[in-house]
What we know:
The protein is mainly α. 70% of the residues lie in helices and 6% in strands. It contains 9 helices and 2 strands; from the N terminus they run αααββαααααα. A hairpin with a 2-residue loop joins strand 1 (44-49) and strand 2. Helix 2 crosses helix 3, helix 5 (79-105) runs antiparallel to helix 9 and helix 7 packs antiparallel against helix 9 (167-182). The mean pLDDT is 93.
Amino acid sequence: MSLLILHAVRLLGFADTEAVAARFAQDPSLVESALIDAGVNGFVSRSTFAGTSGWLLSGAGRAENERLLAEELDLAGARSRVLAVHEDFTEFNDGVVNACGTLQLGISSNQEATDVLIGALAAWRPLEAQLMRSLPRFGGYSDRLLRALKFSTEDASWLTGTDRDSFHRVWFEIHEDLIATLGIQRAQS
């Protein structure tokens, strides 16, 4: 089973084959075949919710994903680098979470929250570059965050929307990617 396929399902949570393939720029037909095989092995299941079909990671799939991530981390010799990035990430994560929360509740102005998010993007860029030296799959987050910020000038839902690649959604994915790579639970991070 490909690390990137299982990891894409984990990061996306619930996604169709095309979204899983697009996450790491893979061929959709190969990804679909691998997902079917993963389903046979009990790593993923296909489900339909509210008229939308997609793949979900099972408990066994999560364990396999973590095993593959640990193997990747050890082969790259990048554990200390990822730990250091995670530690730096946690320093500004609360600010992003708070800014997104206040936006969702309508407590803060878009500009105040956007300023926090712009600062978080600036802090994330060098961390992403550090990670990419050993684990290239971390590339692209900065571009996605910047895209969300640009689109938010016309539509504020690009800051926290769940129906698009919003800043909040991408940020959540970064956090999940870091903790999955390190094999820690979200409550510990």
